User: What shape does this take?
Amino acid sequence: MQLDGLIYRAPKEIKVLIGAFIIVLSVGFYTGLLFVKETSSANPNGIEEQYLGNENQEHIQVMKFKKSDREMLTMIHGHILSMSIIFFLVGLIVSITRLPIKLKLFLLIEPFVSVVLTFGGIYLLWKGILWMKYVIMFSGTLMSLTYTISAVLIIKQLFKKPSNNV
Assistant: This one.
């Protein structure tokens, strides 16, 4: 079965379903990013403070405490499972778009690498490997960019007529 460009031949009701899914998923995804911005100041030191606390620092506005074992395992477990499902479903849709193969493979694989680096990095940061905050920041940014690119390409191809015979 030829998957490349299959999105163009999908029935209207499937296109509407995919479009609604990507839009609603994006609302949830970007709301999560707003939450990250609010809780960690979206910078490496804010990330460190979010998981390791700040009770030993002077001149703080909001006191934060180091996360417990249970909090960390629950957060990491939930995020890795849910993000894997999200990126699997988005990847299925990306696989039926018409894109250069290298770009398509990048969009299919990169989010899974970033999920492991981001949430594995959070765990290692929590265990005391402080430089992981930079890995977390980079991989989280790359994961968000990859999601955004995938979502935009999917939406564009849902409502665009193919440029040549598909």
Q: What stands out?
A: The CA atoms of residues 40 and 46 lie 4 Å apart. The chain has one domain: 6-55+65-158. Residues 6-55+65-158 form one domain. The chain is about 75% helix and 0% strand.
